[in-house]
Protein: histidine kinase
Organism: human gut metagenome
Amino acid sequence: QELISDISHQVKTPIANLKVINSTLLENEVPVQKQKEFLTAQATQLDKLDFLMQAMIKTSRLETGVISLEKKSQPLYDTLAAALGGILLNAEKKQINVQVDCPENLIVSHDRKWTGEALFNILDNAVKYTPEGGQIRVSVESWEMYVKIDITDTGIGISEQHQGAIFKRFYREDIVHDVDGIGIGLYLAREIVTLQGGYIRVTSEVGKGSTFS
C-alpha cells in the first residue's frame, strides 16, 4: 500500500507536465522552433517517468524477495571499477578529481550486479552534489570480519537533522530540488547492502562534504 502511494505521488508531476505540453501542441499554432523545444521538454519528462518506473521495479523486487542476491567470492575492484565507469564522464564535465584506493587482488563475497548498483548510486550522488573542481575519494579497507568502503566528497554536505532521513524512499532536502533525482538511490543502496549483511552510515558537514561508509 505504501509503495503504491509513493508511486502515485511521484508520477503526478511528469504526467501533469506531459499533459500541458500535449494540449499546447494540439490546441495552438506553434512555430516549428517552439515545437522542437516542446518535444525536447516532452522527451525529458518521459525519461524521468521511465527512470522512476525502473527504480520502482527494482525497489519492489528487492522488497518482495522476487530478486535474490547471489553472493560469490570475487574481486571487489572489478565491481567498483564498473560503478566508477558510470560516473566518470559526468565527473570530468565538472572537473571533479576522482581518486581510488582499492587493492586489485581483494576478494570479497558479494553480489556483483547489485553491489555495483549500490556503489553507483552513492557515487552518482557524490558527483551531483559536488561543485565543479571538487574531489571524490574512494578508499577500501579489509578487516578480519568485513570490508569497509568509504566514499568521500567535497560536496554541499548534509545537515545533521536530515542525515537520519536521507535513506528513506523518495526523501530529498528542499535545497537540492533543482538537481535531477527522485530520492531513490540511497534507499536502494541501503536495501542492497543490508540484504548482504552490511550497513551504510553517513558523516557529513554542511559546506564541506560527506562520507558514506
